[in-house]
Specification:
transmembrane helix; 252 residues; mainly alpha; 10 helices; Probable membrane transporter protein; transmembrane
Length: 252
């Protein structure tokens, strides 16, 4: 595929914004997927190619949060297992399911998340310092993390919202720590999904890497902002991004 200067600029710009949005909330793929499809990619190829940027942005975020001491590693094993299993199942579904299923699933997820934040924000935004629960102590978290993994493996767009609901809603991590773990979960199941898409020959490397360059820069800046921002600021950013995700899902 030929990459013009316009396409490269579009990918870097949308990647930069997506890196910020995905690190602090979720839904950045609502920008990057249309940008890839503008280049003439079929939906399934854009969906697969987009995962390359997601993996590299997640690596950047994980190391950034870890460097600032905000990445909780004590319970990562039990958190990772259901998300990776769900991610693999979702990737298999995405590789073979009709692409028209993606929009209803995305829109439904965004609307549900917006409703939860509006009606009961404490579910997804516990106060800083809230004592987190272990997965073993919270059986419902297995279902939440598994569904989040499946959703991320299937569509990716908006998976950050689903992961935050599982990590903050069931395990009670505050938004900064939940965002850090969210990026680690995203990295794990997206690597699984990306491997399957590469095997199926659906990934276009050049546009994917150009997009990834923008996401890395945006993610680096977003981690610094997340560390310094107040819980109230992060909550409102999350709410606004959820509304934007709803609008994007309806328009695309």
């Amino acid at each position: 595929m030929d990459i013009t200067l316009f396409h490269a600029s579009l990918l870097i710009g949308t990647g930069f914004l997506a890196g910020i949005i995905n690190t602090l909330a979720g839904g950045g793929s609502n920008l990057t997927l249309p940008a890839l499809m503008v280049m003439g990619m079929p939906a399934e190829v854009a969906n697969a190619t987009n995962r390359l940027g997601v993996v590299l942005q997640a690596i950047t975020a994980v190391f950034g949060f870890k460097r600032h001491g905000k990445l909780e590693l004590s319970d990562t094993g039990p958190i990772m297992v259901p998300t990776i299993v769900g991610g693999l199942a979702g990737a298999v579904a995405a590789a073979y399911a009709p692409s028209e299923w993606i929009k209803p699933l995305l829109l439904g997820t965004m609307l549900l998340m917006a409703f939860i934040i509006l009606v009961k924000p404490a579910v997804v935004a516990p106060e800083p310092g809230t004592l987190a629960r272990k997965v073993a102590e919270t059986p419902s978290s297995w279902w939440g993390l598994g569904l989040a993994g499946f959703y991320g493996g299937f569509v990716q767009a908006g998976v950050g919202f689903v992961l935050l609901a599982a990590l903050a809603g069931t395990l009670r991590y505050d938004l900064v720590r939940a965002n850090a773990l969210k990026m680690l979960c995203t990295l794990m199941f997206t690597v699984v999904a990306l491997g399957l898409f590469i095997y199926e020959g659906l990934v276009l490397w050049v546009p994917g890497l150009i997009l990834a360059a923008g996401t890395i820069v945006g993610t680096h800046l977003a981690v610094k902002f997340a560390i310094k921002a107040t819980a109230k600021t992060l909550k409102w950013f999350l709410f606004l991004m959820t509304l934007c995700g709803c609008i994007a899902a309806m328009l695309n």
